[in-house]
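Standup notes, protein team

Yesterday: finished cleaning the Mycena maculata set.
Today: SET domain-containing protein structure.
Blockers: none.

Input for SET domain-containing protein:
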Amino acid sequence: MVITTLPATPDEPVTECFFYPGSMEVLTSLPGFPQPLTHPTSPTFRVDAIPGKGMGLVSTRALKAGDLILSERPLLIIVRGMPVLRPYGFTEEQYIQYSFEHLATCVQVCLNRMRPEARAAYMALANSHPKDTCGPIMGILRTNGLCLDGLRPGVENEWKSYSAVCKDISRLNHSCSPNTQPRFDMVSLSYQLFAVRDIAAGEELTYQYTDAARSAAARKAGLKPYDFVCSCVACKAGPASNARRAAIAAFRASGQAWILDRTLPDDWFPSKCREQLALIAREGLEHHPQYFATTRGMMEAYICLGDAQRASAWAAKLDKILWEETRVDVKALLDPMSAQAAYEAHPLWRIRVDEVRAGKMFST
């Protein structure tokens, strides 16, 4: 295991890291690592008391969908569980406790290495596990850790992920219809928090602790470790909201059947996407990957139809979904007047209306 401080720049915020072998190299081998943090041009939030929720984040000015709210390096990145050998005769419960105690020791080592202000910020975070037998440092980790993937390529078991604890983003309270979404940027070793829809000044900033597209009962079960019972509109709506969220999760934004079946109207697939986007907006799930996939489906549908004007309008919407991990660069498609060559080079260009192009695509 590797304990290290990244980046090695004394004049910038840093992260204490407890890594498996190889994870540090994943980061340090990135071209340009570490890039400096990117910040909004003016303050966007404050930490404040939220009635019934403790502390949270509140917007200090109006924000637009896609706006960067904050960037911060985690206080701590640490393994999600210690791979310790199971002592002979230990029950499963005893082994879990044994592993937790080892992990708590590692967290304490990292805390001891932190700058005083970072250590104080960690200890000031909420603890929804006050009776945790491993003490408050583990209760804080269990309450505030964000799942961080991508630092162990090729590893597919339970030891794949890390937990990251942040000074500010970890203070976000849960919502089943969140208005923000964080994205981890490896090259700057930072979480970037984005507005997923327009946010009014003074509005609480929220994030989902569990998959918000699941049923209200499943979300309630997922929130149990946080000692929090959600009473949002979606949870109160019950079956109606559950049905809409299930439809959102099940939708597949692929127009291949529509491309091949010329008996379907030209607007058949765009209409399906518009219905999906309306459900997403009604349920407040713009943070969900389905929002990105469906927006991309709309752009590609109009590319298939050879409509550069409408495709560019949807490319502009897609370009603002900065929080999506699988986002693609569509800047070459934003201006329909200057992007003609880029559209003609696109593999989907006019294949819905040009049988020759469609035949060539699906024969390869």
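Follow-up from PR in the comments: The chain has a mean pLDDT of 91.
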